[in-house]
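Hi all, long-time lurker, first post. I run a small reading group and we've been trying to get comfortable going from sequence to structure in the token notation. Rather than ask abstract questions, I figured I'd post a concrete chain and ask someone more experienced to write out its structure so we can walk through it together at our next meeting. Sequence below, copied exactly:
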Amino acid sequence: MPISPTPSETITSMASKGKGKDTQELLDELHTTDANEHLDEVERIYQFYSTIQGNGFSIRSLSLRIRSQTSLTPSDIIDFGLYPSNETKRYQVKPELYTQIEAAVQSVQGLIDDLTSLIPDRKPGRRGFRIDPTNDVLEILQGSDRLVSLYGAYEVLRKRMDRAALFIEKYYRLCKGEPISSPATTAAEIHERFDPEANADKRLLEHIGMTNSYG
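-- Answer (accepted) --
Happy to help. Here is the structure in token form:
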């Protein structure tokens, strides 16, 4: 595997090609090159957001499908009856719908994480917006004994995906060094307030109470 040149090696190489330039000029050129490469990577990731994938959808369109469906419908849900077998929960969204939802959440979250990693001067380890920070929404959609929980989980997910779309635009602008005003970033301690001993249904109720106030 070829080894990338160090900054000093790069400057030396540039100096041999640019006689008469002082060190500051060479450093400025190097900085410009790095900045251009950074912007190219930002644009590549952002364009991928709208690029049609092998499944026939872009990440943007997968997100929009969830955001545009205001609620689950009875045809989206399987009811296994009062006494489901084994440890199966009584209600769950249909597997094909869950697969689409999971793919959308993972794809959008991955894109957010990629953009977050390219924001200049961001504190190391500081994560970006989380769509399903405690994984409760996806867990409930996979199965719950309370029908209302499925509807509530989808409502939370739809709102979170709406905010995720806003954060993608926010992070894109931050990556390019443009000024932004909103949306506000979620404080990490907000998610720490969830009771780790509570089940997903209880945490969902806590989440519904917070979702309108925090990103």
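A couple of things your group might point at:
The beta strands are 77-79, 91-93.
The chain has one domain: 55-211.
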